[in-house]
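Hi team,

Filling in the usual template for the complex we talked about on Friday. All components are listed, including any nucleic acid strands or ligand strings, so the model treats them as one assembly.

SUBMITTER: L.P.
PURPOSE: interface mapping
COMPONENTS: two
RESIDUES: 1196
SEQUENCES:
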Amino acid sequence: MGAFTVLSLIIFLPLLGAVVIALTAPARSVVFKPVAVATSAVTGALILWLMADFDKNDGGFQYTQLVEWVSSAGISWHVGVDGISLFLVVLTGVLFPLAILACDPPHDAKAYYVWMLVLETGCLGAFLALDLVLFFLFFEIVLIPMYFLIGCWGHGNRKQVATKFFLFTLLGSALMFVGMLVLALLVVHETGEALTFNLLELANSVEELPIGTARWIFLSFALAFAVKVPLFPLHTWLPDAHTEAPTAGSVILAGVMLKLGTYGLVRFGLYLFPEASHYFAPLFFTLGVIGILYGAVVAAMQKDLKRLVAYSSVAHLGFIVLGIFAFNTEGISGGLLQMVNHGISTGALFLLVGFIYERRHTRQISELMGLQKAVPVLAAVFVVVMLSSVGLPGLNGFVGEFLILAGAFVAHRWWALLAAVGVILAALYLLWAYQRVFHGTPDEAATKMADLTWQEKLVMLPLVGLIVFMGVYPKPVLERMEPAVHLLIEHVEQVQGIESPTVNNRPHGSFVDLRELIKEHSYDHNGHDHDSHDHREGSDH
Amino acid sequence: MSTLVDLVWLIPVFPLAGALVLLVLGRSLGEPRAGWLATAAMVGSFVATVLVFVGLLGYDSGQRQQVLTLFEWVPVGNLAVDIGFLVDPLSITMALFVTGVGALIHLYSIGYMHGDVGFSRFFIYLNFFAFSMLMLVLGDNLLLTFLGWEGVGACSYLLISFWFTEEANASAGKKAFVTNRVGDWGFLVAMFLAFLTFGSLQYGEMFFEIESNGVAASTASGIALLLLVGAAGKSAQFPLHVWLPDAMAGPTPVSALIHAATMVTAGVYLLIRMNPILVAAHGWVPDLIMWVGLGTALMAATIAVAQNDIKKVLAYSTISQLGFMFVAVGSGAYVAAIFHMVTHAFFKALLFLGAGSVIHGMDGDQDLRHYGGLAKALPITSLTFVVGWLAIAGVPPFSGFWSKDEILAYAYAENTLLWLLLLATAVLTAFYMTRLVLMTFYGSPRWTSNAVSSAASELDSVDVVAVEPAAALPQRHPHESPWTMWLPLVLLAGLAAVAGALNLPFSSDVHFLEKWLDPALYGHAAHVPFGGGTKWVLGLIAIIGSVAGVAGGAAVYACNRIAKERIERPFLARAWGIDELLSNFMGGPGRAAFARAAQFDQQVVDGAVNATGMVVRRVGTLLRSFQNGLVRSYALFIAMGALALMVWFLTRAGM
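RESULT (copied from the run log):
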């Protein structure tokens, strides 16, 4: 094997920590947490260095490493990072140390920390892999630690929920595996070249495949990702898994693991199957919008605070899918940004709900009241995070949501109009929940609650800082994403001759005609003008 | 070239810095220093605004639109939005009264919030509100205005539910935010449509595009209508007005600053800022704005007649006055709208602060029926309140007369029916304000006797302390407020008295505001098409109307010529039943639909999943002879299925 590059180091560092903990005698339990925190913190620091060192003008993959692995099967250790994956890696690097620091497992600390670190390796590997088989391996690996985290340290009906989670996602990925093999074999068949699972090479040969076949294979990939996102109606594993998972598990599940689905849709959907993604875009658009509205409505009626946050994820992820399938820079950049934002905000929300649960041993909204008076600091942090989740401008959630909706509006305006209603609903369910839990006069149990400890404040501080920073100055993030997004769109347009709907080149779609109308009717304000309804069909032909 | 205009960034930075310092040090500063710090920040902001104003005067009239860009905010693809300020007569006019009135209300709050446990928290919110409001008016693009727009909404939410231990306050805050969000939906979609049409959200670029290439009337109408939805939410116009009366649950200075003088005028500001769009839209769009304004103004005025909570009267009065401004915007009288916005900011802030002073003196009681004869106990408050009353009633030479008269003149130019109805609203305004003043300050005190109507409590609000039962009333000792509270009253009374001088109708030489605002209106402002004679007659009719309203109020509430029950109808007291309708819907079918969706999710969607799981489990059990463990049997099942699928795929592809 060749030299170990920084990306490989980042991927394996947490695993190394896991091995160290696994080899430590159970009696020395005091060192487990420090080792876990330190490992993930060093990994995070390395990732931050990576972000600083990243060339923001380069849209391609950087720090790539390609090592033959199973050469006969065309499988290689191929990793690299671009503007699309960079901030998901950063998010992983930031959330893991915070989640590990914030919550202590009630029992079996050793196994808990081992699984957490293995999970981190899995997530990082999946975001960085540029080989289909490698990606699949990491994509599957993450299931195992999460299965055990829910099953062993979860609450309530944890065993059954863990199984549901495992099988639901496994079913999706089994199909993806099939699709992957078929894809590689068919490409060999069409091009006559050696078998390879190299993403970059496959992406350039996919156009050789018959359109119908490519669409089928795309669907097999998309299903796996749709389960992971999760898209309506495949979302029901999520509220269960979230609610029963331990706090750190929920943070990682919502913050990082759901992004495997949306990231997959970008990397292995749009990039690998441009034509098919474009063909099925209306389906994803529709499901995304349904997710936004449906998730919000169902969230509003939840009695369990954690379940409410879980359903809010369904709505937020609907936005992300909407942005991705808008096929323009605004939408995709917004979607990518929102993946990070959702990770931060929802991660923070799950932490806060966890803090409440630790103090009160209940998450039932009806059993909590008057918390703002009892624990003002926790309440203040909750307000900031809530407003970020609601999409208040000046906080992180807004920029992504705005870009997504603007991009979606350019592509499919009526859908975007509907999706924007989600903005109203988000305010409704979160503010209502806040009112019931935090407002009012504290009852006896509430008055006995302790406010945030210094350790909890330490965990929340960077998250709140990021929420504000990314709302006020998202440029450093956006400018690193944009070249990669441009490249992706160029690739999409070039491979199948699709033109993406943007404001600048105005190829298809309503506004083009509106533009012409504008020219026709300039200065003709009094006379009648043609209604532009006829021209308002979507942009996909 | 550097001029005073370059200082514009200081205007919002002062209150922002104030809020941040208080966030960190507020508790240790404590009362009253936290309040003084916040007030100082507002005074600093006001001084900065005055300097920028002076700087702007240094430019020729045609160049009074200066943009100062700080940094790129959202640079993506074709969308490039900056954090930048637009300094022009419109934004600076707004900024002047926001910071000026804001500073006075901050000062007032030091006295009003005395002894409150949330003293420093209150000033954090207040300063942060001022920052957001200034971003709203100074932003050089729609997105930045939206930032301020939502920011003031959030502060409004936090301040309405400031005394959050009361369930009603918390509900009112939530209602305000969610109702505003309905409007924000319109604003958001308007931005998307504008972006699509112009490729930019910057005011200058959009208007340049309209100027050079024009815009289709249908597109402009779409944008204008969506903006109207947004404006109706923020400025409490029918049917999105329902949040404002409830918003009175907040501390009274908040009502004065946010829910009367500044934030609620943002909708009017937005529409005027986007005047090239309104002009380019179909003619019925401005008409719609006009009729929405008229309907709201008239409805709210009738409701105000029957309210017994002093703040509720003022709240409905605010809705009504905002309706006047919408009428002005709809009839193209942008200058008149701004004129009325400014005079209204003075007299309505004055009235609210005066009401606060009364409430303060009455230990938190807000019920008019418990007042009476307070003029003696509260001499400064009552005197200044009278100035505010005359101003809002439209009695010359107080400011409200001039601005309202101008709106009426434009309404007359549009449509006689419109004018008549608006005149009727003005008469009602004079009537209910006279009622308020008479019931509060004159007549015999009703707080010393036990003979208070026992039905008093049903419409009571919940400010400061819950209203005590009537029998407890005699212990009251109404007292004048401290100087921090009466000084703002005196200053605002002075402004409310003379602000009419901003735009006197006599000759074009004294149309100061009109000339000053012209660069921001691109010559789109309407001009009254008739000459001096008609104008004088209209003015005379307006004066007669005001006097009639005052006289009517006096006949009912001073002379008892007419039984007040004949006027204060239950239907009006219940605000036309709109609130009930809404809450019945939200609590009934609305909630049921939501619940049904949740049930659907649990039983149908998840049910299908679980049923599939059951089937798979059965199959798994059959295979258990050579497998054990649930997960493994599933995995095997999946692997076999996958294999079969792969074979199918490959054969299908012809390999």
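MY TAKE: The longest strand of chain A covers residues 62-70. Chain A touches chain B through 95 residues (CB under 8 Å).

Thanks, L.
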